[in-house]
Amino acid sequence: MNNLQRTNASKPNASSATKAGAGKAFLELIEKDRDLARAWADLLRCGDVTGSRSKKISTRVDPGILAAAKKRFGVESDADVINAALAIVGKPDRFNEWLMHHKGQLSDDFELAI
């Protein structure tokens, strides 16, 4: 199963949401970048992907950082790089939820094997 299939399998109707929220180049980027595929799937699962690319932003960025990000993702589009970076940064942190859910579940005689 490839990254896009994993992304699509992670939520019912994720395929339509993915197609609505991402252009062809971005879908190809999801296909080849496992971290981005996981982040995108998590954002879809949480309902954070709106399916629209309508928010316009204007900012100044360090051209070296932008070039490095484009190289890392293998794309030329500023929008795809920014969306990929925001998806990775905006991905929910499920470790905290897991930790709180499992709080107090170790037995009293638990020992670390160090």
Entry summary:
61% of the residues lie in helices and 0% in strands. The protein is mainly α.
Radius of gyration, rounded? 18 Å
The number of domains is 1
Q: Order of SSEs, N→C?
A: HHHHHHH
Determine the structural class based on helices, strands and strand pairing: mainly alpha
- CA distance, first residue to last residue: 36 Å
What sort of overall outline do the alpha carbons produce when their principal axes are compared? elongated
**Proportion of residues in extended strands:** under 5%
- With helices defined by DSSP (H or I, 4 residues minimum), what is the helix count? 7
The overall pLDDT average reads 80
Give an overview in words:
The protein is an all-alpha fold. The protein has one domain. The protein has seven helices and no strands. Helix 5 (63-73) packs across helix 6. The longest helix has 13 residues, at 34-46. 23% of the residues are buried. Residues 1-14 and 16-20 have low confidence and may be disordered.
